[in-house]
Design brief:
239 residues, alpha/beta, Rossmann fold, 2 domains, six-stranded mixed β-sheet, four-stranded antiparallel β-sheet, 9 helices, 37% helix, globular
Length: 239
């Protein structure tokens, strides 16, 4: 049974259709990569999955039940964790405190559980040496790591990653990809929006390409990247 299913979900702002009848299914343990030009509706799609934005039409199913009307905190506690394109830590709090907060309030864990989770996630994401450093003073790479770590601290079954490699150097992106490969190998289900295509291709099992709020292509990563419409729309190349 798929972990997540979207049934023809749509969202409009006035006359602008940001997502237009998109359907997709994600299997447990799968990594689905989402590509599309700027303004294609990718982040709005994440917002519809996480509950940050209400669906106008269609249905969102998670673990076989309809969660279309559930608020974000209930979806998070049910196992849908996400990162944001621009890291949003509590800058005056330490890295460890950020993770405890995510575990308590996002994951609904007790204080003791949250401390244990935070310690585990620090090791998992390579942030242990910065545990007591103020989150606002971190480098971009470590802010991206912390954004990932805060999502992991909620103990998700489905992890939504929004351009987590954006703005990083080649070396930094490679470090982050290595961490995602380890997370994937532990059985995590992920949906990853990314413009750094080579990073996405090294992790994704399947690609889903969006253009003007609609599905343009879906399938095997190499086949999708060789699709003439994808090359024309996404990469500006004529086949």
């Amino acid at each position: 049974m798929p972990l997540l299913v979207l049934h023809e979900v749509s969202k409009s702002y006035g006359a602008l259709k940001v997502t237009d009848g998109i359907s997709l299914a994600v299997q447990p343990g799968e990594t689905l990569g989402i590509l599309g030009p700027n303004g294609a509706g990718k982040t709005t799609l994440f917002n519809l999955i996480s509950g940050d934005v209400r669906v106008d039409k269609g249905r969102v199913e998670y673990e076989g039940r309809d969660v279309t009307t559930l608020p974000p905190y209930r979806r998070c506690r049910a196992g849908i964790g996400r990162s944001y394109q621009v890291p949003q830590p509590f800058g005056g709090m330490s890295v460890f405190e950020n993770l405890v907060t995510a575990a308590c309030f996002g994951g609904g864990q007790s204080e003791r559980e949250a401390w244990e989770t935070a310690a585990q996630v620090l090791e998992q994401t390579g942030l242990r040496r910065w545990a007591n450093q103020a989150a606002g003073s971190l480098t971009l790479l470590n802010r991206k790591r912390l954004e990932l770590a805060r999502a992991l601290a909620t103990r998700p079954k489905l992890l939504l990653l929004d351009e987590i490699a954006g703005g990083l150097t080649e070396h930094e992106a490679r470090e982050l990809v290595d961490e995602l490969v380890r997370i994937k190998s532990a059985g995590m289900t992920m949906i990853w929006i990314e413009h750094v295509v080579h990073a996405l291709l090294s992790v994704a099992d399947r690609l889903f390409v969006v253009n003007f709020g609609q599905k343009l292509a879906e399938g095997d990563p190499q086949a999708v990247m060789n699709d003439p419409d994808v090359r024309r729309v996404y990469m500006g190349m004529e086949a």
